[in-house]
Amino acid sequence: MSRTSSIDKTVASADDAVADVPDGASLAVGGFGLSGVPIVLIDALSRTSVTDLHVASNNCGTDGWGLGILLEQHRIARVVASYIGENKEFARQYLSGELEVELTPQGTLAERLRAAGSGVPAFYTPAGVGTWVADGAMPWRYAPDGSVAVSSPPKEVREFEVDGERKPFVLERSLVCDFGLVRAWKGDRHGNLVFHRSARNFNPLAAMAGRTTIAEVEQLVEPGEIDPDDVHVPGIFVHRVVELTAEQAARKHIEKRTTREA
């Protein structure tokens, strides 16, 4: 992976930060549900003409929010995710054959992203053994008539001895992406990032998986102001930092609000 030599990695705006994302680029995008979603960078992408994107993310936002914005604009061609969630447009495009979707066990997806940033090309896991995940035939893309147009290929399965017993494990490949898009609570000009509570979900993993990682930060501080023990993602993984305005930092949606009567 290429790493920037610049010390000050701040970029003037989100639009400048994503200006070189080309058609067909692969993106590792942080967030879980609507927590920790890099919405400002996604909005900036929506203002470009980029299309045919390949996205790796836990889910694909909701209707009208997060990656759901790019879905509605038909900018996304393929998604690797573990959860369709509350996004009706995501489900509609997948079932109608407009979108290719590789559903992956959540822990496997997390490890594929982490492995990408660690230089590990592949790994074995027990998740998915004995299912379509390992055996193939999982529908990746449907045809307009509802038949399966593209299905997943079978994966290598090997046995390893664990606790005195031989057990099967499936080979999964790491997921290196052209760009990583993440949202952090705090970051410095060197790209060191800190995430707040539940926003520390897929964000560190997406940051590791991107060849070029862009971070939007709610609070920009000077180098040295973050205790090294508090850093969740070191600046070696981050190439561009965008400081959010107070208004942008406050834009946070709730995926499913549940209340009770007073």
UniProtKB/TrEMBL annotation:
Which PROSITE patterns did the record assign? COA_TRANSF_1 (PS01273)
Q: Name one GO molecular function term.
A: succinyl-CoA:3-oxo-acid CoA-transferase activity
- EC annotation from Swiss-Prot or TrEMBL: 2.8.3.5
Domain of life, per the record?
Bacteria
Q: Which residues form a coiled coil?
A: none
Cited Pfam families? CoA_trans (PF01144)
Q: Which UniProt keywords apply?
A: Transferase
SUPFAM superfamilies xrefs = NagB/RpiA/CoA transferase-like
Q: Which family does it belong to?
A: Belongs to the 3-oxoacid CoA-transferase subunit A family.
Record-given protein name: Succinyl-CoA:3-ketoacid-coenzyme A transferase subunit A
